[in-house]
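Lab notebook page, bench 4
Experiment: in silico fold of construct C2
Operator: M.H.
Input chain length: 125 residues
Purpose: comparison with the prior construct
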Amino acid sequence: MTRDMPRESWRDELDSFNRQHQGWLVSVTTRRPDGQTLVEARDMPLQGVSQMSSTASDLAVEVGDRERHLTHEVREITALKMDVTDAGADKSLIIESADRTTTMVTFRSPMRPEDVDGVPFSRRE
């Protein structure tokens, strides 16, 4: 199931996404309009996804650690979506651009944040 994120809530959605998933292993993949798929990063810790400007139309996806680091920039965002499992776990963040390129930040092991390490916890907000 895919959940669309309303444009006016992108900043809040990304803040929540980053708090819940920082450090989780992700792959960053882009699919171009011609169908070509490129894996930008594989199984690297997520540092965060953030807006690069106050207009919210450009994002930076940061992954890695001290030894390996990647910042993948996505320009002219037209849509943000979350692909979610039937159990409600986030599978991937889908970022669509004006040039019809799709960037996916996909979790290696989708699970609900409250079930991480098999021990439910309550979130503090």
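Observations: The CA atoms of residues 31 and 80 lie 15 Å apart. The chain has one domain: 2-108.
Next step: discuss at group meeting.
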